[in-house]
């Protein structure tokens, strides 16, 4: 991989990221090709020594485990993932991580034409897709992320005022919120006829005993239904579930 470093033109987008910048900026790498993994490690360590590599693995399931680890030593600030991998491809890996993490920067890379993955990986929650054949673009993006994070306020709810992204990609927090909203909408679509009836009655102010009487079922049955409905939409409680259901009816 060539290492000539020339910034690429990217669209500007603003957003927020949680976390303080008192911590070092770390990187996790996943590529099922061992040679590519070594080349990436060498490229980034030489061009951007301010980024600390915390792990580099060839198995996507291992990358998922490490990326979502409770250990701060293993949890990277930035994740660089290949797209084409057996068992768990880059799109699915990105989505699984983004659903649980609102702050990690996820950069996807591929040897195939970018159009093949761009929209899918953007909606999965990544911040960019770069070509393995254009290492300068990758370094430019990583350098910009580092600069943006280091310029951030130490306030946990503040981040750099801007960072450049290509069209259709969002910053981590924005991508997390979009994915969560889409997942909730899909969850509502799986509600059964009975569950929709229960949600409607809840929205009209019916209590559990009143719903039980209305539907002619036991109290425990209603409670079980509501618990399952909350799980489907990722709601913390009945009130939140009903609010999401009402929003989904509009």
What is this entry, summarized?
It is built from ten helices and seven strands.
Task: Give a verbal description of the structure.
This protein has ten helices and seven strands. It is of the alpha/beta class. Helix 8 crosses helix 9 (219-233). The longest helix has 18 residues, at 172-189. Residues 1-22 and 153-161 have low confidence and may be disordered.
List keywords for this structure.
250 residues; alpha/beta; five-stranded parallel beta sheet; two-stranded antiparallel sheet; 10 helices; elongated; disordered N terminus
Write the layout of secondary structure elements.
Blueprint: E1 12-13, E2 26-30, H1 34-47, E3 52-57, H2 60-67, E4 78-82, H3 90-98, E5 105-110, H4 118-124, E6 128-131, H5 135-150, E7 163-164, H6 172-189, H7 193-203, H8 208-215, H9 219-233, H10 238-249
Parallel strand pairs: 2-3, 2-4, 4-5, 5-6
Antiparallel strand pairs: 1-7
